[in-house]
Fold this protein.
Amino acid sequence: MTATVETRLALLRAMVRIRRFEERCVELYSTERIRGFMHLCIGEEAVAVGVLGALDAGDAVVSTYREHGHALARGVPMSSVLAEMFGRVTGCSRGRGGSMHLFDAGRRFYGGNAIVGGGLPVAVGLALADALAGRPAVTACLFGDGAVAEGEFHECLNLAALWRLPVVFCCENNRYAMGTALEREHAQTDLALRAAAYGMPAWAVDGMDVQAVAAAAERAVTAVRAGGGPCFLELRTYRFRAHSMYDPDRYRDRAEVTRWKEQDPVDRWRDLLLADGDLDEAGWTRLVAEVDEEIDQAVTLAEAAPVEPVEDLTRFVYAEQSGVSS
Amino acid sequence: MSADVDADVDADVDATGTIGPVRTTYREALREALREALREDERVFLMGEDVGRYGGCFAVSLGLLEEFGPERVRDTPLSESAFVGAGIGAALGGRRPIVEIMTVNFSLLALDQILNNAATLSHMSGGQLAVPLVIRMTTGAGRQLAAQHSHSLEGWYAHIPGLRVVAPATVSDARGMLAPALASPDPVLLFEHAGLYASEGEADGGPVALDGAAVRRAGTDVSIVTYGGMLPTSLAAAERLAAEGTSAEVVDLRSLRPLDEDTVLASVARTHRLVVVDEGWRSGSLAAEVAARVAEQAFYDLDAPPERVCSAEVPVPYAAHLERATLPAVDDVVAAVRRTVG
Ligand SMILES: Cc1ncc(C[n+]2csc(CCOP(=O)(O)OP(=O)(O)O)c2C)c(N)n1
Ligand SMILES: [Mg+2]
């Protein structure tokens, strides 16, 4: 794939936005502006950017609780993501969801699911609806390596393959499910092999290489959109931070983390662009400054935003037009 | 069924003078109970997600892997239905498994196994099979974890014949309920409230019967019946009410199935008023069950309609002010009591 300079720079910017945003979130968490569980995708940005970048506006996305990067890469405004994490009514879920439950129906971003494996059946159904309506849309379903152990994973891959539904199953294999390493969680650690057993194209990709992810996602989305049934991508990556802000991270070897950091997807891509002359140091500094400016604005807006009035607590338990009161 | 007042437990040194209550936390008391169970019975093992290497998602099992090894402290994959079902099978096969599910929200993935197997096998097999299984899980809200991590669904489980359901609210109960649960031939679900893990108190190490409610504070004007994470809220309300001259008795159910009706009815016979405080949703709730039983069996003892203080009927939201508005608070309990005595 020969990408233009603009495309290559756009991939870099998209990853830097996610990285800098989450680094700011850590600060905001430590000052208690953000509460609850917060899961960061620092180290996994190439997956978010590569996969989400391969989608069209009409496609659907189903994600997990580790979804800041997915939401930002999908185009959910940073200010509404941050406002959500601040619990403000201007947040993308009115402050009701927080970090783990970002929704944006207009962008077909169906959340933000905090039950491991819980999003897969929903993705199958979204794809079924698109197929029934004759829409050429695909559904990208993102989940972790841990989810592969859940029954729903197996039920959903079978169902999607059986009905030839337009789902791209994207497994972010970051080698850990909380404190449980891949080898202690799966008898067969080649996850693509397991997906292939359900009768769909499945392959593993270097998830630390944004170009490789983008190319694989492009190929998968094209095949799925053409009506060939689902595909499975195993995106091999690593989370640099603890599972969540609560995790004391007792279960991994520091040297392992350091080794993976040498594969930092942002650094790798930036260094390549610098080496290829697509970017110079001044351009890099400017890019970071522009991203930081956007983050500053998002923080200012979130700080100033109102919270939802308590009287509205019971709104939307049922659809407003149904007239049912809880 | 027994009721005991342990509002004023004193240092209870036994005849040899060696055992006395220890000041500890709810979390450590649970861990100590696990340690004792693993030490005393070869058949006991603990399994669940991240109970070993990670140290337990709420650090309850921290250190037990190192002490007992991976055969007896088993990390499982994310497969709730499989490992709960495997716990049922292992219990049928003569082991005494303790299965940890991280939170009650995730237990829904294992609900089929819990209801269709654990709860039914004894009766459905005409008494041939027994499932001596203990399932521990965390319940409750209060930490801004939003709508998939905050619910109190123990009332659902209390609906199911064949299960025993307990909810330790004190350090002593956290320490003392596991051994009787393991000794029970029936499946026991043990609910640990997330908000209680850091609470401190004294544990004397003695076993706590699984079917007796406890009067945590004696009173004469109203019975506040509660359990689990709502006990501190109810006690705080009783304290506030005492200052304004209302004497509230606080009954901690401890066992949600079977319910210790006798203790509740005896309390209502003394106070003639009932307020039930339950973190679950009101409709079809455990609070409804308690109120219905009192209405059925003690109608003429009542001087006022029973009151229920429950969570708002919404999925628990993330934002702090909304979560606070959702959960029963001391003010809500005080207001409900005032309505009954007013
Ligand atoms: C059904 C269920 N079980 C347990 C949990 C608790 N939990 C949250 S994330 C997680 C690990 C998931 O690992 P993985 O799927 O690899 O995703 P990652 O966090 O690595 O992105 C666990 C055990 C949960 N949220 N849902
Ligand atoms: Mg993982």
User: Anything to note?
Assistant: Chain B has a mean pLDDT of 94. Chain B has 14 helices and 15 strands. The domain at 214-341 of chain B is CATH 3.40.50.920 (Rossmann fold). Residues A 144-146, 174, 176-177 surround magnesium ion (ligand 2) (CB under 6 Å).
